[in-house]
Amino acid sequence: MRVVPALPTDRHCAVMSSLAAQTFSDTFAHLHSASDLHQFIQTTYSLDRILKDIQTDTVFFLCNDEDECTADPIGYCQIRWSVRHAVLVDTEEYPDPCAEIRRFYIKKDQHRTGAGTFLMRFILERAKERDVRTLWLTAMAENHNAIAFYARFGIKRITDETFVYKVGNDFQVSTAFATKLA
């Protein structure tokens, strides 16, 4: 496996849009109606929105070694460097600089193959290289597999506060998780 930075090209935007839609659907389709899911995906993973994400954040594709052109990545991660969440009020426990894992998805058929671990270790190494001291994310309360996965890397729930956002006409509840990096 190898990790490749996403570039603001038409090809990478199309690949990312497709991968993001697929992995979000695979993970959350059972929680939402088809129309709500479709509306969310059309808005959140449009080519224009993906281009903006790639231009403003750091996005990495996880690829099999055979995928030399990044045509069919098996996962991706989107990072926002130097971003602190409002719930990280204890600067001693969660010191600056902070970074957010905004999205972290692996294709369903690649779960439990080591792909997620490979990508997370890569992200942790990049964060340490950038002297990030706190890495945080939000995760949907219903995403028990992801929450257990993050816990393996010391990323723990840090608040009972929840955050609600819309998926189509439906609502999804998330909460914040973080870890202090050495």
Concise overview:
With about 180 residues, this protein is of the alpha+beta class. The chain is built from five helices and eight strands. Strands 1, 2, 3, 4, 5, 6, 7 and 8 form an eight-stranded mixed β-sheet that branches.
Whole-number average pLDDT? 91
What kind of sheet is the major sheet? 8 strands, mixed
The number of helical segments is 5
Structural class: alpha+beta
How would you characterize this protein structure?
The chain is an alpha+beta fold and 182 residues long. The chain has five helices and eight strands; from the N terminus they run βαααβββαβαβββ. It has helices at 10-28, 34-44, 47-56, 115-129, 144-151; strands at residues 2-5, 58-63, 75-81, 98-106, 134-140, 156-157, 163-167, 170-180. Strands 1, 2, 3, 4, 5, 6, 7 and 8 form an eight-stranded mixed β-sheet that branches. Strand 7 and strand 8 form a beta hairpin. The mean pLDDT is 91.
